[in-house]
Design goal:
The chain has about 425 residues and is an alpha/beta fold. The chain has 13 helices and 12 strands.
């Protein structure tokens, strides 16, 4: 069912007045996912509208002085989707295509993700509509600090904890932490996660999302009888998530045969040299022009002969136009929302196992939780401890979701939503409505 197929009487409830009903974007995808899970919620279904309405949305103007002395204005967002299980948690992205619908959907997926791995957070997300490649470092710092000040009334170590996302990193988080600390008069390391280790960041955080993708992929591969040794991988996006997952799979004996990012698409049927490709990405800014593989058309990436496909870029990449070309046995979503509902159905009909973002890429927020806990206690763990804790949590979370999928004969995505939505709505029900 497309977003346009929702019965008219549902629209006022499902679609907030500030969204165009003819173009609801990623939020429409999320609403369809909630509709699919509602029949499995039992008595908690009476609370389901809670999931369809973000608790709080802040849209801010972010003016900064540019290096040339001119004043530029950027639009920023912070959305808190649900806080029933704890403070808001979710990244901040800097991208020229950021929209309110996107940030709303990402905040909702964070609610689901946090509940799925059972960390005590609600869902939140932030963003600024800007092309950060066009700004100097000084302009980026001023943009980050002004944005942090504008959303300062919402965020805090026990209220809402931002983290890095697309085009933001540890330096961005350092600026955010410092700005918040200056405004509140005391150093508050726990206001953000994904910080530099020297400022209270956690070891293992940069690789955490990719490690979670790998961990869930290995567990699922065992269940469907897919050997990792010799498996052929195609990866879209080769940054922190795709690059880390690709390296871990390669270390386990798999072959990365195709990689795509914003600079190009490359293919090597014998498998690329992953460490060399990672170095090329670090020095050149992308996979394009990598000498150890041949170039290929962007559309042909989706038809590559592979066993495992990892979309680790942006949302909506696998859609009804390319899903039928996918040959993989398993899709592991490293990105948030990379598969549209229509594509989900196509892949299901083809017998492709899809490991959804809300469980597969939850390694990042899991180690963010570890970082937050370490900041509160001012006691820090070793990287081995962190990785071991991460793997255990991801394995247990995936095992629980897989069991629900088998019992209800539903997809892993729907099963993850069942587990997460039950936890969120049970918390909502126990807390009640105040006043």
């Amino acid at each position: 069912m497309s977003v346009h197929d929702h019965p008219a009487h549902l629209l006022p409830h499902a679609l907030p007045s500030y969204l165009n009903p003819d173009d609801v974007g990623p939020w429409g995808t999320y609403l369809q996912q909630v509709d699919r899970v509602t029949p499995y919620l039992g008595s908690l279904a009476r609370w389901v509208e809670t999931l369809k309405r973000p608790k709080r949305i802040l849209i801010v103007d972010v003016p900064i002085e540019m290096d040339d002395g001119s004043i530029a204005h950027f639009e920023g967002y912070r959305v808190q989707h649900n806080l029933s299980r704890g403070p808001g948690k979710g990244g901040v992205r800097f991208h020229q295509d950021v929209t309110l619908s996107e940030v709303m959907a990402l905040s909702a997926w964070m609610s689901i993700k946090n509940a799925a791995v059972n960390v005590p957070y609600g869902g939140a997300k932030g963003g600024i509509r800007v092309d950060p490649r066009k700004l100097s470092k000084g302009e980026l710092e001023r943009l980050t600090r002004r944005y942090t000040s504008e959303i300062g009334l919402l965020i805090g170590p026990t209220k809402d904890i931002p983290a890095p996302d697309v085009n933001t990193n540890a330096q961005t988080m350092a600026w955010m932490m410092d700005t918040y600390s200056m405004n509140t008069g005391s150093t508050a390391t726990g206001v953000v996660t994904g910080k530099p280790v020297d400022l209270g960041g956690s070891l293992g955080r940069v690789e955490a999302t990719g490690r979670g993708v790998f961990t869930v992929g290995v567990e699922a591969a065992k269940l469907i009888g897919l050997p990792i040794e010799g498996a052929r991988l195609a990866v879209q996006g080769f940054g922190n998530v795709g690059g880390t997952a690709g390296k871990l799979f390669a270390d386990a004996g798999a072959k990365v045969v195709a990689v795509q990012d914003h600079t190009g698409s490359i293919y090597n049927p014998d498998g690329v040299d992953v460490p060399a490709l990672l170095e090329h990405v670090r020095s050149q800014g992308g996979v394009g022009g990598f000498p150890g593989a041949q170039s290929m058309a962007a559309d042909d990436f989706w038809a590559v002969n592979c066993d495992i496909l990892i979309p680790a870029a942006l949302e909506g990449q696998i859609n009804k136009d390319n899903a039928h070309r996918i040959q993989a046995k398993m899709v592991i979503e490293g990105a948030n929302g990379p598969t549209t509902p229509e594509a989900d159905d196509i892949l299901h009909d083809k017998g492709v196992l899809v490991l959804p973002d809300v469980i597969a890429n939850a390694g990042g927020v899991t180690v963010s939780y570890f970082e937050w806990v370490q900041d509160f206690s001012s006691f820090f763990w070793s990287e081995d401890e962190i990785n071991a804790r991460l793997v255990r949590i991801m394995q247990e979370a995936f095992a629980a979701v897989w069991q629900v999928a088998q019992e209800n004969k539903v997809s892993v995505r729907t099963a993850t939503f069942i587990v997460a939505c039950q936890r969120i709505l049970h918390a909502r029900e126990m807390r009640g409505l105040y006043p």
